[in-house]
Amino acid sequence: MKKIVNDPADVVADALRGLAAAHPGLLRVTEDPAVVARADAPVRGKVAVVSGGGSGHEPLHTGFVGPGMLDAACPGAVFTSPTPDQVQAAVSQVDGGAGILLVVKNYTGDVLNFETAAELLAADGVDVRTVVIDDDVAVQDSLYTAGRRGVGGTVPLEKIVGAAAEAGADLDTCERLAGTVIANTRSMGMALTAPTVPHVGEPSFTLAGDEMEVGIGIHGEPGRRRAALADANGIVTALLDPILSDLPFTEGDRVLLFTNSMGGTPLLELYLAHGIAERRLAERGIAVERRLVGPFITSLEMQGMSLTMLRLDDELLRWWDAPVHTPALRWGL
Amino acid sequence: MKKIVNDPADVVADALRGLAAAHPGLLRVTEDPAVVARADAPVRGKVAVVSGGGSGHEPLHTGFVGPGMLDAACPGAVFTSPTPDQVQAAVSQVDGGAGILLVVKNYTGDVLNFETAAELLAADGVDVRTVVIDDDVAVQDSLYTAGRRGVGGTVPLEKIVGAAAEAGADLDTCERLAGTVIANTRSMGMALTAPTVPHVGEPSFTLAGDEMEVGIGIHGEPGRRRAALADANGIVTALLDPILSDLPFTEGDRVLLFTNSMGGTPLLELYLAHGIAERRLAERGIAVERRLVGPFITSLEMQGMSLTMLRLDDELLRWWDAPVHTPALRWGL
Amino acid sequence: MPCDAAAVAAAIRAAAAVITTHRDELVRLDQAIGDADHGENLERGFGFVVSSLDGEVPDNPGAVLKLVATTLISKVGGAAGPLYGTAFLRAATALGDAPVLTPESVAAALRAAVGGVVARGKAEVGDKTMVDALTPAADAAEQTAAVAGELAEVLRAAADAAEAGAESTVPLIARKGRASYLGERSVGHLDPGARSSALLLRSFADSAAGA
Amino acid sequence: MPCDAAAVAAAIRAAAAVITTHRDELVRLDQAIGDADHGENLERGFGFVVSSLDGEVPDNPGAVLKLVATTLISKVGGAAGPLYGTAFLRAATALGDAPVLTPESVAAALRAAVGGVVARGKAEVGDKTMVDALTPAADAAEQTAAVAGELAEVLRAAADAAEAGAESTVPLIARKGRASYLGERSVGHLDPGARSSALLLRSFADSAAGA
Ligand SMILES: Nc1ncnc2c1ncn2[C@@H]1O[C@H](COP(=O)(O)OP(=O)(O)O)[C@@H](O)[C@H]1O
Ligand SMILES: Nc1ncnc2c1ncn2[C@@H]1O[C@H](COP(=O)(O)OP(=O)(O)O)[C@@H](O)[C@H]1O
Ligand SMILES: [Mg+2]
Ligand SMILES: [Mg+2]
Ligand SMILES: [Mg+2]
Ligand SMILES: [Mg+2]
After folding, report:
1. Which of A96, A191, A257, D151 is the most exposed place for a label (fewest CB within 10 A)?
2. What's the structural domain count of chain C?
3. What span, in angstroms and rounded, lies between the C-alpha atoms of B212 and C102?
């Protein structure tokens, strides 16, 4: 296994020690249960925004902790949602008395564990709300499935809700805002290669040199379909078209375009793909007003990319632009 | 070839179009010759800091263009230094009348092309100085080689000199400061896998599953030696010890520690390695006062990492902390 | 020998060892249609369960299962943590503070466990989940408890039914959990959670037979 | 047929075609001890050279080589761009505005070219660079020009010597350029720049022989 790790069983704990060392003054990292909180938490009178999920998607979520975004993140084992204990511990560290918003990606494990935590917290009298993001258009929403996955839309969701909370929005407002983001966000991803989970030691799937996975998630699970490898134009089309037709996004829409690397794709290729997506949207009369390009929600070293589009209004734009200071996103501070 | 590209011959131009689209208002990108300049250039009365090099190392250098860092970057073909034309074009776009500092990594091609440009610019009456960074301790400095390569140290060099220039330092000061950074910076890198250059279409070298390359550069060239794959502790030791003994760094030193991903290494592993390096330095009584962790000088999708240490004084610290607003590094703005 | 708290604790330890033996198999099953962590999740979880039991052995079977439940819920994460946690919790509640297990109480506990999994995960038989192993197991346990009377026989019937139920997931299209994202591509693979349910029940049956 | 500007331009076009044919070979050589771009760099550069010649054919051989030089310098980058660019520039200067090439002027141009590469790159014979091909080529050209008198023979002697010189780089340890970072690991590989020098000279010799 080609990895920079010691004992694979300790990989998350070891990485958290490095994260703590790298960001003193910004983050406070506690072990057992593992919680990454902003150093100045709890912020009195402020809604606390808490998220979490399996590790291996960095910078999501731990890299988004800090003023203007998350109050705390709960990192689970690699690709495994965190436990209710972690969520409770996080909340106890960051509860400023104005309520808690739990941001959950729609996976059975995440939903069950956060739900359990929310029940236990509510039983303790904490005012806690849960929002579940399910922006992945690769998965058909249906009564007969676990529903759509939460993927790239998580990043703007956490940024926007975090900004509102920082500015003093109350829990109802934060919850409503989260609903607006979720309703207006769609994503789709693809992979050229598979990630290798440290405790497994081999790639999660194998692809021939002329194949790609389309409609991929972020846990090394195979995608919706395996397709012949396409060039950048073909890849962008395969991601963008289902996104556009799903919401749908139409002429005159103002959007945030988020071009995300799954981890192993070089920035050179990512910018190249971003340029194609921008031109496609311009052709359709969709105005890209904000963009984010980089590896922000990853699947270890997987090569591939995802596109996320968020339909903006003035309120969302304002919170997107608001100052943020986290390890991975920073501006205005 | 598993890449998100259209025609490999167009990869740099295509990526630059995406970069331009992604950062309107911040960058101004011109083609033929390819130049990425800050949108508000030239800044009158300010020393202009210009760098460049082969593409494929993103965010270096194009991602470091903006207020507080580079005035312009000249992206060459993949892993190929830019031409004198590009450098001249960049300078003509950003010359604010206070002189030009060219930041060059020590490779024969880069030095020759920037030297040629500098000669031509000087002949035109431009006050131009060239600084060459050669921080890679993997390569023994000797009369009989091309000398040490310029690698990770380029990032703090550009940040620090860029900050001073932004604050109004004159060309002599910027040149002296660059010399101080170069004299106090040492780096070393390693690889677990090879990058694939788009125009080649296959990995630059092959490594067995139980091997790594130590003392690697950033162009897919093999390293100084091939070694048995080590765990994270072993990898950090293999990089840190030669760095420490070279300057040497000693007890009581204050340093910036820069833990860099070569591109394909997940942030989880990078933070893990960073944590080990921090502990090693603490054990030796070396005070890590600033850190940078992430993929900042890469070699396409190569998995691996490098460590860079810069011995700090108050002046360097001040310029490191100064505001910067570029696609890849941003704070205080 | 009556099946008391100590015997149940021993059975849990034995099951933990079985999970360790089958860790890689469960990882591989989950790799095919999920995210390759089911074996690792359960091994980690049962590792903590064994540590908990090293610390204290509660004094009735229900309390042992409750300790298993709370440990799994607080230490595993993923889908399997809360689902198995709930299963053990409901089983514990069903057993109450009875000092020993009976064939009937075991059948009732298993039925309660299945109910817990369904309540949490909303899966039905045929959705290609652990429910496909656990539901027939609970049916078989009840039937056997009604006619036979031996605890070991009840658990053996449950294990047999769970194994058959797990096998039955191979041709199915997953409609719950992570495998559901694959749609038709999930066909032809054994569901990892169904497999681990069968492994656990077989281990319990073996413990009961050996006791 | 006198070797005038048109003949030199034709020889440059032929050399560009040779580079394209050998692009992958040069990439592979550079991949072994460098960064895998030498073939791509030269193909790109000579592609621009051909475009320049499509636009204008300067009216003497020296001016043709100057156009080649400025195009390589401004379009190639890397080490090879400025080094070959300087070589062609010095050769052009040596030729002055003479209307045709002579055996002597070609030998002098080649000597000037080598001098330019050494002035820029500071490599000596034995450092495992293009200098190992170009230096013996210049020596052979001078010797042949002194005794024989045929332009084609002078260039053939240069090409023969360049090929032998290129081969001689295989056992060397690189001490200049990117391959020097490999130290002892550079032993056993042919230097890509020495190889491309030999290819260019062989192509020029073939053009002269065919003219
Ligand atoms: N909604 C559900 N109801 C019942 N069982 C489920 C459900 N979702 C998932 N499972 C079971 O959980 C197993 C996967 O567990 P595990 O891999 O540990 O968690 P995760 O899917 O979060 O990675 C599946 O094989 C399936 O048997
Ligand atoms: N200092 C030097 N003097 C002479 N030739 C050199 C020198 N450095 C490099 N070369 C030649 O350049 C060749 C490499 O060219 P190329 O691959 O195009 O550039 P780069 O090394 O910048 O990638 C080497 O094979 C060698 O022959
Ligand atoms: Mg999981
Ligand atoms: Mg090169
Ligand atoms: Mg799983
Ligand atoms: Mg090269």
Report:
1. A96
2. 1
3. 59
Distances (CA, A) of C154 to A297, C7, C114, D95, D157: 48, 16, 16, 102, 95
According to DSSP, residue A149 is labeled P
Q: Which domain holds residue D81?
A: 5-209
Cα B268 to chain centroid distance, Å, stands at 22
Cα separation of B287 and C107, whole Å? 63
pLDDT at C148 over 90: no
Q: Which residue has the tokens 């039955």?
A: C168
Please state the separation of Cα B152 from the chain's center in Å.
Answer: 5
* Vertex C12: Cα angle to C8 and C14 (nearest 5): 115
| N-to-C CA span, chain D | 6
Whether pLDDT at A145 is above 80: no
Phi then psi for B73, rounded to 5 degrees?
-130, 145
- Partnered with residue A72 across adjacent β-strands are A37, A50
Q: How confident is the model at residue B144 (pLDDT cuts 50, 70, 90)?
A: low
Complex confidence, ipTM:
0.94
Domains of chain A: 11-184 (3.40.50.10440), 185-320 (3.30.1180.20)
Q: Catalytic residues of B, which ones?
A: 57, 219
How many beta-carbon pairs under 8 angstroms link A with B?
194
Q: Do A200 and C73 touch (CB under 8 A)?
A: no
Give me the sign of the Cα torsion angle C149, C153, C159, C164: negative
Q: Which residue of B has its CA nearest to D83?
A: B112
Q: Band of the pLDDT at B146, cuts 50, 70, 90?
A: confident
DSSP calls for B271-331 = HHHHHHHHHHHHHTT-EEEEEEEE-SS--TT--EEEEEEEE--HHHHHHHHS-EESSS-EE
Give the B window 154-213 contacts with D, CB below 8 Å.
197, 199-200, 204-205
Q: What is the pLDDT of residues B273-325, one digit of tens each?
A: 999 999 999 999 999 999 999 999 999 999 999 999 999 999 999 999 999 99
Contact A320, A185 (CB under 8 A): no
The pLDDT value recorded for residue A224 is 84
* Rounded Cα distance, C106 and C124, in Å: 22
Angle at which helix B108-123 crosses helix B84-94, to 10 degrees, equals 50
Q: Do D31 and B84 touch (CB under 8 A)?
A: no
Residue A61 designated active-site: no
Q: Which residues of A touch B233 (CB under 8 A)?
A: 6
Phi, psi of C23 (to 5 degrees): -50, -50
Chain A residue numbers touching C120 (CB-CB < 8 A): 112
Q: Are B123 and B79 in contact (CB under 8 A)?
A: no
Give kind and range of the element (H or E) at residue A7: none
Q: Is C204 helix (H, G, I), strand (E, B) or coil?
A: helix
Can you give the CATH number for the domain in which C195 is found? 1.25.40.340
Query: CA–CA distance from A284 to each of A273, A281, C95 (Å)?
Result: 17, 5, 64
Burial A36-66 (b: 16+ CB within 10 A, else e): bbbeebbbeebbbbbbbbbbbbbbbbbbbbb
* pLDDT at site A142: 64
Cβ within 8 Å, pair D120-B112? yes
Cα distance between the two ends of chain B: 40
Answer yes or no: are the C-beta atoms of B278 and B238 closer than 8 Å.
no
Residue D78 backbone zone (phi > 0: left; psi -120 to 50: alpha; other: beta): left
- Which site among A61, A272, A329 would you substitute to test the B interface, given the most B Cβ atoms closer than 10 Å to its Cβ? A272
More confident residue, B222 or D127: D127
Enumerate residues 207 to 246 of chain A having a beta carbon within 8 A of any beta carbon in chain B: 209, 212, 229, 231-233, 235
